[in-house]
Amino acid sequence: MGGSPLGGRGWVEYSLPMSVRVVIAAALVCVSATGCGFSRMTPVPRSASQQILATEAIDRALEQFEFPDLKGKKVMVHVGPPGDAIDEEFLRTAVSVELFEEEAKVVTASEDADLVLGVLIGAMGLDIGGRFFGIEGTGGGFIPFTIPELALYRKTRTEGFAQAEFALVDHHTGELVHRSEQVIGTTWSERTVVFFVFSWRKTDTARPE
Fold first, then answer.
1. What pairing do the DSSP bridges indicate for beta strands 105-107 and 74-79?
2. Which domains does the chain have, with CATH numbers?
3. Which of 31, 95, 102, 186 has the fewest CB atoms within 10 Å, counting from its CB?
């Protein structure tokens, strides 16, 4: 009997280059991966980037407000729903600052006010959506260990939006003194992940990337 051309072992072991291993692993992931679009509610608490998107959208809306002459007037600010409580508080403070710049006097008691500035919120907050292709991570439940997310491609877009208008009312007579046009402020940020580890961000805010 002749000897085996494989040296009597019946097989040959190969040491695959790292680049080939990565390609094979990616191919295996592709077989079981899922691709889909996604959208979700704004998580609480927000990240620093999300806070910047939300507050800058409000600032951009307020920059479009045109107030009548309010110099020396005592003005009480009222902010109406809907909106996140954090956003409403920021909006109330930002409007008060705008009134200070108009040389008005901001008061908190209605009996002290000459005018009531009602800020009407049409919509205010964050929308999050995007596209994902890969294997979603898992943790807890019936699986006693955590499987990290393997994203061949993920693009997440977060948009800040603020829509508002204001009505200025004479507190003593109840008459409408001035009503603004509706204003809209928007911001956006995108984060892209490719092949698990390569990522970059884009945004139209002042946040450095």
1. parallel
2. 36-203 (3.40.50)
3. 31
